[in-house]
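Sharing a chain and its predicted structure for anyone who wants a worked example. Both blocks are below, sequence first, tokens second.
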Amino acid sequence: MTSLHDRIQEFCAARWGWETLPAGLFEEVWLPLATQIAAWRQETAGVLIQGILGGQGTGKTTLATILIEILREWGLTVGQLSLDDLYKTYADRQQLQRADPRFRWRGPPGTHDVALGLAVLRQLKQGVFPIELPRFDKSAWNGMGDRTHPEVIAHADILLFEGWFVGVRPIDPGQFEQAPAPIERESDRIFAREMNDRLQDYLPLWENLDRLIVLHPQDYRWSKPWRREAEQRMMAAGRSGMTDEEIDEFVEYFWRSLHPELLIQPLLSDPDHVDLVIEIDTHHQPQRVYQPTQKIN
């Protein structure tokens, strides 16, 4: 009889071409995490809305995909929703950019249809099925992206809701006065404060989260080399990609809107809003898992 470990290894080989699983990852991270989520589901009336917060390169989508496979092996029905799936339509974002040229890329607060996400999460909470989960096609309009056909699900025990600022809350605006790079210029601080204010619009979404897991890189600056790796893989596969200069500009754009040191760091010691933190090393691999109230120095 094939073990769960072997089935997951076969899945990863078919999905991503992994010859073997990273040492200890299944036993020390994936399986305990899936077990914890299944236990949280038992404690939750109705669908468990499980948030996963992680920046670029932290592996949140990969983690969610593997957790879904494990939980399905245990007979649980799991849906997946990304914050990216809630982007406004191409037309709406073009209008937003014309009104404010600083929204040159999708991503920051203000580029999502919060009302759409709220309607989906509330419908899940009420157990009204079937439900249409929004989907976003990043390749549409030459990479600008647009809404595409939703995925209809007939039932769900758990929804994994992941994104680069899922669960992030506004901070005291005064903290932007001594902000780290790249928000040292006054114009950048103004933009950062405005994005911080826009986070207020997302709080109703976060209030629907039952649990929140944070994927935290040991150094947020690894986002740049991680993004370069991703672009190189895309170009090796024959697709277009960004230059190193474009990557730097793109990543710093995200840092300017919601700087990790200012807005993500506080969550690592916030047991009221975060249930687990998974620390990620430079190779994208989890190193340790802890609760905010039980961090080991």
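Comments welcome. The CA atoms of residues 140 and 216 lie 30 Å apart.
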